[in-house]
Write a structure and sequence with these properties.
The protein has 18 helices and 8 strands. The protein has 454 residues and is of the alpha/beta class.
Length: 454
Amino acid sequence: MAARAKPRARPVPPAAHRRQAQQHSAATSLRAALARHLGPAHDGIRGPPAAGGHHQGPRRGGGDERRAGPPGRLPPPAGPAATRRSPVPRGSQPDPVLPEPAGRNPPAAGGGRMTSARDLDVLVLGGGNFGTALCTILLENRKKALLWVRRRELAEEINTRHQNSRYLPGVALRPDLVAVSDLAAAAARAPLLLMVVPTKAFREVARALGDHIQGDQILIHATKGLEKDSHRRMSEILREETCALKIGVLSGPNLAGELMAGQPAGALLASHYRECVSAAQAAFAGSRLRLYGGRDVVGTELAGAFKNIIALAAGVASGLGLGDNARALLITRGLSEMARFGVAHGADVFTFGGLAGIGDLMATCASPLSRNHQVGERLARGEKLPAILASMTQVAEGVPTTAAVFSRARQLGLELPIVRAVHGMLYEEWSAQQALAELLRLPVGEELAALRYR
């Protein structure tokens, strides 16, 4: 009896059709589909989750935890974004061996995965100071890197004058740093994508990117914040808006001004995929940016978002003329609040004692280069928030993040006094002196009790 021909794996439909696609029903059928589609070499590309951790929610086209998600998932959005998502039962997890999603174009003839001309090592998305700094370090490290920016005028300035006057005034850029503004043409050119986009534009760029990338590309973001209305973390948005499987987050004490001055730094690269971590480490290997690997995506993202609030409070302390004792008190108590918030979402408490937590706090709470620190300092001097923000060329993520964290903490019943005080100054017209008085009026108890007895 003649053997039946193996059925070809169906590619994930592109764009809007991908949003309505159903998840595969069982892990065994997924593994079989992957083996047919990609061959055995791609089986098991994803390692097991860290102890106490969990895999993140599905990507666009795969649904998500609309009813009730795992501890690391923040509540679903109430706005229009919710209509693009399909519900799955509580505790659902993306399988580590999903068939490789296709992009906008159909598969290559013969049923094989569509391939693109990959003439780059890394594509950096975002022409702000940090995105420009990362691209600069990659070029120093002899990697083929390209910088995507949203505005054509900025691309022309970088390519012709070798300057980024809006985000890095007075800094001469490398002549081999090339910028483009055509996302469709650039997206498929590199196996590794680094997304460095402000939170307010993150979903829009992710949605556009999702129309042009393939599922085998590695997608890492370095955005420190939460989506304002939905409270979504950035990796959740990437899963909703792209077909990417291998997603990671880069976070740590990385002041762009110091990086552009040639100084060394370190960061944490967290992902559930070993290949994601190793690819990023290989790209920066031997450079002055040392990347350490980790698996706590939730903790790394929440630490990066939360530190913006504490940096803003530290700026207020500087503006009030408070000394090092007060700054040390603020940083350590801020770290405690950060850890409580993270642990409540399923994060590993040890993450907050590393580069993404205390490391980033130390840099941004003491440095005048921090935009959040600058906002806090100007608030303490009596300036009004709208005037401060209007005068800034870059986003101070601590302002929208404070609103998101404050709202989420109230939902969870968490007491976060520093967040409460910063929220009062930003949104309730508290003076800096009033915020300080409120903090000093609080009763004191055992220092680590809130973490020890969870």
